[in-house]
Structure formats: structure tokens, C-alpha cells
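Kindly inspect this today.
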Amino acid sequence: MNVIELHAKVWSGLQVRRERLPHSLLLVGQKGLGKFELARRFAASLLCESPQMDGLACGKCLACNWYEQGNHPDFRLLQPDALGDEVEVEEGKKKPSQQITIDQVRALDEFFNVGTHRGGLRIVIVNPTEAMNRSTANSLLKTLEEPPAGTLFLMVSSEPMRLLPTIRSRCQVVAVPVPLPKVAAHILADSGLKEAQRWLALAGGSPVLAMDMAVAGQNAWLDILATRLGAGRHGDPLAVAAELEKAIKESKGKLLLKQVVDAVQKWLVDLTLARNGMPVRYFLPQQATISGLADMIPPARLIQSYRAVITRRQEAEQPLNARLFLEGLFLDYRALFAS
């Protein structure tokens, strides 16, 4: 997917900054917009020895070759081990970290103490920036307060309010907006994605997330969920909990409990919209079903249920019994239709 075409205005704004780069840029926007890829492309263009007129890296020089191979001497990427390419967890071994560790930040000291290649720029991408605990964030803050000369931090965040205020204050913010649905759907279709509008809606307008969801083969469990939720009061909470628990286990880490809760949360948003006479936002093919269900639920009960799911979303991040958790989630959903 061409993120430069998707975010042409943001890319143009980044190119304007080339002349007077700050020591830190913070790219913010909702999840799945392509912020990380934008940061990567911008880093490549800054390290390139022969950038093109539009600012893109040439892809042919020695610097571009190093960058594509992941061993450019003037570039570092800080991200959780769990986001690394082709991460596989062997049975009995510790799972990759979901956080950027303090050791990763401390390792930058050696990087900063070595001169740059041909006197060029030194670049560090932090993705996602909110994946740091307070100790790690404070360690990085020390560097941001007194950044080494010729160094640019490209920080990426989908949840900037989770960052330390002192970190946000030391960055120039680059807002990455949600692209127009027609533009995003067109680019997704050109990338070979079928049912682009459906996936884009499920992803909340985020094209990269839409592509990831489709490529990950999330059709099956989403269809199960939509069918079971569409049954309303006639649904079997225990049966759908068992089906989704099985899907989570068989996915081998590709489907997480929090993703199921996110989908239920989106279904409740659509119910609320339909209850107020508005078109659904996420589950487009189920518009008629959702509208029919919404008329059976008192508005106050919908609001209470949505608040409860927010709490469950936080609980889903913790180790727990998935089956019991899902049973409670779907029992609460069926209770929406109690007379």
C-alpha cells in the first residue's frame, strides 16, 4: 500500500521540515493509519545520498541498500520485540516483550558516542512511543532534554495522552489524519483488497489496519461474532464463547482476546447509532439486523453496557481464563434484551 499517496499532505509537510529539522517529531493519529511506515519512509529519504525531487529515497545508493537490509550505521529502531518480523514463540519459552525496555534505550548511548557516517544525520524511530513504562520513558527523556547534535527522533504514537507530558512537550507534533473513505477504499482496492469498504469500516477508517485484518484472515471469527450477536436474546452466550475461544487458540497468537472485545465494542457503537436513527459505522453488511435489534434495547441500558465493555477491554490485557471471560462478556450482551 502506498502510504505516501494516502497521506500526501503529511508527506509534503515533512519535506518542508527537511531544511530545519527539530530534534524530535511526534507522529500521532489513530491506530492503523500507516504512521510507522511514514516514519520509515521519511527516515529513508533523510539518510538517502540522492533523494528524488519528491523527497523519496532513491533506493539505489549505498545508504539505501544499508537501510533496506536493516544495518544502516546511522539508524536505530526502538520497538517491542513482539513487533519484530516473523516472531515465533516456542512452547515453554518466554513470550516476546510487548514493551520497549530500558535496556533498549540505554543501548543508544553507544550509538550516540560513535560518529555518523560521512557526517550525516543520525535517526532513531520509536514505535509505538506509548509502549514504554515510566522508567523507560524517563530514561529516554534524559536524551530528549539534551539531544546529541545531528540527531532526529521520529516518535510514533496512536495514544499520545499515555505519554509523559514532558516527552510530548519536547516534540513537534505531526498529526496524521484519517484519510477520506473514498480515497482509502480506492487505494485498498488498487492494492488487491476485496470488499475494501467493509474492511475499512471495521477498521474505523484506518486503511493499514483494514489491510492487516483482511490479510490475517479474520473473516471466519468476525462472521461467527456478527451472526451470534445478531441473534440478540436468542443467542447462546456459552456456545459463542466456546467458538471464539477455539478460534483464539487455533490462531496461535494472531487473534487476541482484546480484539474480540474491540469488535463487541464496535457492535455496541453501531447499536447506539441505529437506536438514534443513524447509519452504522463498523458492521456495514449487518445494518438491517442491527437496526432491528436496537429498537429492542433501552438507550440507558446501551450506555451502561458500553461502559462495562470499556472495563472489560482493560481486563483483556491481563492473563485470565479466556473461556470464563468470554462467557461473562456474552451473558452481559444477552442481558441487554431482557424484558
Remarks:
- The first strand starts at residue 24 and ends at 28.
- The CA atoms of residues 186 and 196 lie 8 Å apart.
- Residues 257-275 form the longest helix (19 residues).
